[in-house]
Amino acid sequence: MKIVAIDKKDWEKSLDRLRQSYGLIGPVKDDRYHYFRKLSEGQTPDFDFFNTRTSAKEIVYPQSEDMFEYTLDPTKEDYHLLKEVEKDYSPKAVLGIRPCDAKAVALVKLNFDTEEYKDPYWLRSWEATTFVGLACDAPCSTCFCTTAGCGPYHEEGLDVLLADDGDRYLAKVLTEKGKKFIKAAGWTEEVDAAERFESGKAAAEDKIVSKVSTENLAAADTLALHGNEQMWEDISFSCINCGTCTFVCPTCWCFDIQDEVHGKQGKRMRNWDSCMFPIFTVHTTGHNPRGTKLQRVRQRFMHKLKYFVDKYDSGIMCVGCGRCVQQCPVNIDIRRVCDLMNGYGAKDACAVEG
Amino acid sequence: MSALSPAIQDREELVENPYLPYPVRIDDIVVETEDRNLKTFKFVFLNEQDEKKFDYHAGQFAELSIPGKGEIPIGIASSPVEKGFVMFTVNKAGVVTTHLHNMKVGDIMGIRGPMGNWFPWEMLEGKNVLLVGGGFAFTTLRSSIVYMLDPANRSKFGNITVVYGARTPGMLLYKSELIEWEKRDDIDMHITVDATDDPDWKYNVGFVPPVTEEKAPQGDENTYAIVCGPPIMIKFTQPVLEKLGYTHDRIIMSLENRMKCGIGMCGRCNIGRELVCKDGPVFTLEQINQTPREY
To answer: Which among B68, B108, B264 is the nearest to A261, CB-wise?
Structure first.
């Protein structure tokens, strides 16, 4: 695969060139943390970060998104008729997305791009986006990507993979979208730097010491795993159902559809939702199939680590980014839960170590 | 779940926005029950070609869509053999259904669908079919009965037996049709009510499970039961069917869960790996037994 070199002195200039064809998005520091933001004229992405506070999923899949609009004025001819909302699907490029977040986009695509139905909002947005990744040479202590089907130089879901090489960036072109992007950027200096990617990858992977075990999940008995109330009681005991884990997770895709009305104008929109909330599943009768936090916590982990594994045969629905581990206010750790589920049947399984 | 998931048809939704409802006009509203909490709405598509696109089978559901209020998944009560309209019987319960109950003939709203799988009609050909229904969970069963009794279809099925119960005579849905079906000799009807002081009531009195035990045919390899009703009815009907010899792969049920998208994407209606909206709502008891039963 083609690799080009970009002198860091030319970086800003090439971003200006790219802006003529793409809306640029990149990590920006917001007092304490990095977040993905639209880069305004002259603004450069800040690559001095471990990972962004929230995932990159919102680039393709906004937290809140209009679907339709309509009038509730009965004197209007189009009264009560839903109309598509005009949207901006012009080309955009996300710079500096970590390989874990890019792989997550590929996993989420399995949900929105199916044989029977295509989600037009997600797919159009995804088609319009070029994913320019930044390899992770300095992973966090909570990263466990290498055992979650991903890695610091993982290429799945990316169009271009950038690696920091001192006073230059190296860009590995991975797809047709990537080729177009490189061309628009004016990056033409082809180099033979495959070795840098190989050695960088090996060195970065060595730095990831945190691991999960997943080899028994596919063969595990769903009902036995689900029915192990004691294990789930133990795991969910401290959960306060705040939903932070689902909010920051790059692979959580669940959404709600709501109508919102202002005067006689209405819109139908979709918003991120969370399986941690009781209202997610409550019936109109008041009956709730997942009315307890044990049931909700179990749903989250069973979905990620068992149902998804069985349904798609594409590994776990987790890329090991570690955000939920870092940000859970009560220290529930998916690595521990994964190991418990994977080792289910083994003696003395307990969510609390030591 | 392959046995009950027929091949997906090459529907228009593949290229169109699956969240965009077909515009419809309310053509007729019938108050079904004495408590006035159940109304049947007949809808006509504003665009004629949409009716062709809304190509459904008995057992499927659709999202009724009211701008400004939201959407609600409801089983289709009309039958694919009835042309020119679609029909839904709706219980007044939440925001959308309460608003719908206040709407009038001529009002415009939307329908999105058809959604989900359906009763396994191809598999049921040549078989005896027992339908057990309770309360207002009789809508897709009505669709099924009308489908099977259609002159073009009746010969495809063996004996058809129906056990349908409600709390009182005034709570039965589709009363004039029930009485018509009672008179026919190609369908074995057993209507029942929990209790009544009506001296003219000439049908059964008693809960659905004991009436089923008394009237339903024995289960065998050529007989299938389709059961739709409130959880309490299902709970007590299952042992009756087992006693009659129905194996779990011949007991067919339709599940409900909270839904939003109806097309398998929004993530809330799952029972284990199965999505009630897309892999269901129709499952055999054998299939349900293999799920965590979160419904």
So the answer is: B68
CA separation (Å) from B260 to A11, A287, B142? Answer: 45, 17, 25
Amino acid at position B244, single letter = L
Please answer yes or no on whether A281 and B109 come within 8 Å at the CB atom. no
- What residue numbers bound the domain in which A179 lies? 3-59+86-207
Q: Are A4 and A174 in contact (CB under 8 A)?
A: no
Tell me what the pLDDT averaged over chain A comes to: 95
Are B68 and A70 within 8 A, CB to CB? yes
- Does A331 contact B at CB distance below 8 Å? no
- Inter-CA distances, B22 with A178, B13, B66, Å: 39, 11, 11
**B7: confidence class by pLDDT, cuts 50, 70, 90:** very low
Asked if the peptide bond before residue A74 counts as cis, ω within 30 degrees of 0, the response is no
Model ipTM over 0.90: yes
Q: Taking 60 as the threshold, does the pLDDT of residue A352 lie above it?
A: no
Model's pTM, two decimal places?
0.93
Give the residue from A207, A240, A267 where a domain finishes. Answer: A207
Determine what percent of chain A is predicted with pLDDT higher than 70. 97
Provide the 3-class DSSP secondary structure of residue B251.
Answer: strand
- Map B151-209 to HEC letters: CCCHHHCCCEEEEEEECCHHHCCCHHHHHHHHHCCCCEEEEEECCCCCCCCCCEECCHH
Q: Is residue A65 part of a domain?
A: no
Q: Let me know: does B70 contact A257? Beta carbons within 8 Å.
A: yes
Same domain? A113 vs A8: yes
Residue A283 Cα, gap to closest chain B Cα (Å): 6
Tell me the CATH architecture of domain B2-114: Beta Barrel (2.40)
pLDDT tens-digit readout, A178-210: 999 999 999 999 999 999 999 999 999 999 999
Calculate how close chain B gets to A314, using CA atoms only, in Å.
14
Domain positions in chain B are 2-114, 121-254
Task: Please name which of A2, A273, A45 lies closest in space to residue A159, comparing C-alpha atoms.
Answer: A2
The pLDDT, as a whole number, for residue A178 is: 97
Contact residues on chain A for B19, CB-CB shorter than 8 A:
67-68, 120, 257, 268
With 80 as the cut, is the pLDDT of residue B8 above it?
A: no
Give the pair of three-digit tokens for residue A248.
Answer: 């920051």
Residue A9 DSSP one-character state: G
- What would the mean pLDDT of B105-123 be, rounded to a whole number? 97
Asked: is B121-254 a CATH 3.40.50.80 domain? The reply is yes
Average pLDDT over residues A257-266: 97
Nearest-by-Cβ selection for B261 from A257, A280, A287: A257
Pairing between strand A3-7 and B204-205?
unpaired
pLDDT value at residue A1: 77
Mean pLDDT (chain B) is 93
Dihedral angle, C-alpha A52, A55, A58, A63, nearest 10 °? -110
| Helix/strand/coil for B255 | coil
Give the torsion sign (CA, B13, B18, B23, B25): positive
